């Protein structure tokens, strides 16, 4: 239902808003503070980047790749402009996030706010896991998307690393 969808999509918005508010109200966790990119965070960012940089190619050029129907469901029998537009917009999200990650990976430290793009993407991704798997009976027309299990195995640890580093990273007093 639309109400269930609206409730679920409100969660990432509220989560990001709460994170911003936390930074505004907590001493030592300012959004403008330079934060170190730790070796563990850098590894998580490389995994996230590697995962996301190839997805636009897969979903735009090879949406009918063998095995995708098992992981995510069947392709529409008569693709439409709406379907094509959704593929393009999804690819755009992956491209923008991978570009942001690529730029961040070239830095030794970044202002805390610079991590908001990858964190916001992860917040939406966690919402997708709920819709795709945990509440698939409500949201997924063909049942659970088993791809969600693979995605969770990769995304949840990345989310944990980003969250920990975002909240507890050492403040870099001067950017090198």
Structure description:
- By secondary structure, the chain is mainly α.
- Helices cover 69% and strands 3% of the residues.
- The chain has seven helices and two strands, in the order αβαααβααα.
- It has a two-stranded antiparallel ribbon with strand order 1-2.
- The longest helix is centred in the middle third of the chain and has 25 residues.
- It is globular and about 55 Å long.
- 15% of the residues are buried.
- The model has no long low-confidence stretch (mean pLDDT 91).
Mind sketching the topology for me?
Blueprint: H1 2-25, E1 34-36, H2 39-61, H3 68-72, H4 81-105, E2 109-111, H5 116-134, H6 136-139, H7 147-168
Antiparallel strand pairs: 1-2
Helix pairs in contact: 1-5, 2-4, 2-7, 5-7
């Amino acid at each position: 239902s639309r109400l269930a969808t609206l409730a679920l999509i409100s969660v990432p918005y509220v989560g990001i808003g709460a994170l911003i508010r936390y930074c505004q109200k907590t001493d030592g966790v300012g959004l403008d503070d330079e934060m170190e990119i730790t070796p563990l965070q850098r590894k998580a960012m490389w995994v996230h980047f590697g995962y996301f940089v190839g997805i636009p190619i897969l979903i735009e050029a090879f949406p009918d790749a063998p095995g995708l129907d098992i992981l995510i469901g069947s392709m529409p029998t008569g693709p439409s402009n709406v379907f094509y537009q959704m593929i393009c917009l999804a690819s755009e999200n992956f491209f923008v996030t991978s570009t942001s990650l690529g730029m961040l990976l070239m830095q030794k430290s970044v202002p805390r706010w610079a991590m908001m793009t990858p964190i916001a993407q992860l917040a939406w991704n966690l919402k997708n896991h709920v819709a795709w798997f945990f509440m698939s009976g409500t949201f997924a027309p063909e049942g659970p998307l088993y791809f969600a299990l693979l995605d969770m195995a990769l995304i949840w640890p990345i989310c944990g690393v980003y969250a920990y580093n975002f909240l507890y990273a050492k403040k870099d007093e001067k950017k090198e």
